[in-house]
Amino acid sequence: MVRVFLTGVSCVGKTTIGRRLSELLGVGFFDLDEEVERFFGTSIERLQNRFITMHSFREEAGKALMDLLSRPESRESVIALPPSGLMGRYLRLLKKSPGISVVLHDVPERILERIVFYDVDSRPIEKRLTPTEKRLYLREIKKDITYFRGSYGRANLQVDISGLDVDRAASRVKLTVEASCRKVPDHKPLEQAVLRDAGRLGDAPR
User: 141-151 b/e with 16+ CB inside 10 Å = b?
Assistant: First the structure.
């Protein structure tokens, strides 16, 4: 078994499904957002506020991913990446690290149902959306899906979890990863693996 990197747009279920997937695979689980906060000793939002651009933030936050990948306990694990997990420094680090990258896909309406709000210190906030706010957030989710689509094309695997609960979604990812491992027993770093799988990525669900 190798590392499984999970990514997808915000609130698609990376953390919840990733944690269940790690249980099914019998490996550890890491959430990169939590690792970034642990590494820098501050919340994601407070860290982001130190930088003018998200690119600059990702370059700095990549230090936490580098630290995680250097730890023996991460060698066989599931790692939940942020939506930008296949961009910038994150991508450069993944290219050097053996593992399988998986993008989770769901319909915007279901993603909206799972939306969670946090304060500046990453504490969950209770917020009931008005119909107008729901339409606005649904529009933003659709924009994110479009924005990240190009970077998600770099992943080894695409998994559609539309209509599935957590257990069924995690099981689908597990089966997809295991099938990929049978075809390619020793997964190379991302760059080489993507080149090998490029012929079938075009037909993957989005």
Answer: beebbeebeeb
